[in-house]
Design brief:
Length: 348
């Protein structure tokens, strides 16, 4: 469907997931235009410079900022496929409007306005999140069969409560609205759960890498709250984006989640693989204790009440049916992520 002579635009190309998308596109013979905020920040783009050497003439880097109108014009020129991944993924923020909502929402709107002005674009793939499907674990009580599917939208998050989830919800809604106002290009959305697995860069500032480092380094040694998440391998999420962009028949939203696990179960997978090499959590903290200590660790009472102790379940069948996605086993994902962190010197 996509002509391999035209470049594929990947926004936020230096990010944790986007870097895998860029690499897999190059391996499949596509040309890629990747945007980054600052080309001179070597720590952020070094691995992309390595890919430029490995795939000569196939990867071009552009500077662009989500908040600057027209910023993506040059990088989008001649593209048939746009994969929009750039959006801040941060859980602890001081000013949620400025740090999360504005870049997510205005960024999506800026990029899609540019798509409207770029006649070659046929399809946009948007990286949303399961955070646009649910806000709190307790939302599962409102589902028909106790499982989240693509038919649900997050209605419990706001600027004050779970603002990251709110940013993903308003951005995805805006994307569907803008797409619905025209018929030249279509929109396919990927809604990943918590993404884990090896990083192509040496950065540790992302939430996915930070979560693994915290698990291994003993931050939860005294115990973890019962919090349940969907987990998925970064390479499978990257593959989902490329399938969503290149399969003519792909449509709609796609939950991408291999399996749901609690934090304690995640620790147990690591213990099975690495024995007692790391200070992994071995017990769960009772919910009443979370009410007491939670606020000091950034968990509000509302968060504790609506999330701690509630199991999660996601239906990933549409991603398998529509995209043909095959999921890696979580133990493989975790093992290869730890190996990469050890090799890069971030974990002993
Ligand atoms: P990441 O490594 O932090 O990537 C975020 C990217 O967004 C970075 O490339 C960052 O650029 C870029 N960005 C942030 N603000 C920007 C701005 N104002 N202008 C231009 N670019 C900006 O995180 P990630 O985990 O790969 O996340 C990528 C996407 O996946 C996000 O949309 C996130 O919401 C979504 N997602 C992630 C997960 C997960 O578990 N990791 C799960 C579901 C959905 P810099 O490199 O310059 O910082």
């Amino acid at each position: 469907m996509i002509n391999k002579e035209t470049p594929v635009l990947v926004t936020g190309g230096s990010g944790y997931i986007a870097s895998w998308v860029v690499q897999q596109l190059l391996e499949q013979g596509y040309k890629v235009n990747a945007t980054v905020r600052n080309k001179s920040k070597i720590a952020k783009v070094d691995h992309l410079l390595g890919l430029q050497k490995k795939f000569p003439g196939k990867l071009a880097l552009y500077e662009a900022d989500l908040l600057k109108e027209g910023s993506f014009k040059e990088s989008m020129k001649g593209c048939e496929l746009v994969i929009h991944m750039a959006s801040p993924f941060k859980v602890n923020v001081k000013d949620a409007q400025k740090e999360l909502i504005d870049p997510a929402l205005k960024g999506t709107s800026n990029i899609l306005k540019q798509v409207n002005d770029t006649p070659t674009v046929k399809r946009v793939v948007l990286t949303s999140s399961v955070a646009a499907i649910y806000g709190d674990a307790a939302d599962i009580e409102g589902t028909k069969n106790g499982v989240f599917t693509e038919e649900y939208w997050n209605t419990s998050s706001s600027l004050k409560h779970q603002p990251y989830s709110y940013s993903k919800t308003v951005a995805e809604k805006e994307a569907w609205k803008i797409q619905g106002e025209q018929s030249r290009w279509d929109l396919v959305v990927i809604n990943p759960s918590f993404v884990m697995g090896p990083s192509l860069s040496n950065r540790t500032d992302g939430e996915s890498t930070d979560f693994m480092i915290q698990l291994l380094s003993g931050s939860f040694k005294t115990g973890v709250p019962y919090l349940s998440f969907g987990f998925v391998d970064v390479r499978d999420v990257a593959a989902a984006h490329i399938l969503a962009g290149t399969k003519e028949s792909a449509s709609g939203r796609h939950i991408t989640c291999a399996v749901s696990k609690t934090m304690l179960e995640a620790g147990a997978i690591l213990r099975k693989e690495f024995g007692n090499k790391y200070k992994l959590p071995s017990r769960e903290l009772p919910k009443f204790l979370m009410y007491l200590v939670g606020p000091f660790a950034g968990f509000s009472w509302k968060f504790v009440s609506n999330n701690v102790g509630i199991p999660m379940s996601f239906d990933n069948s549409y991603s398998k049916k529509d995209l043909g996605l095959v999921y890696r086993d979580l133990s493989e994902t975790f093992k290869e992520q730890v190996d990469q962190l050890v090799e890069s010197g971030h974990v002993k």
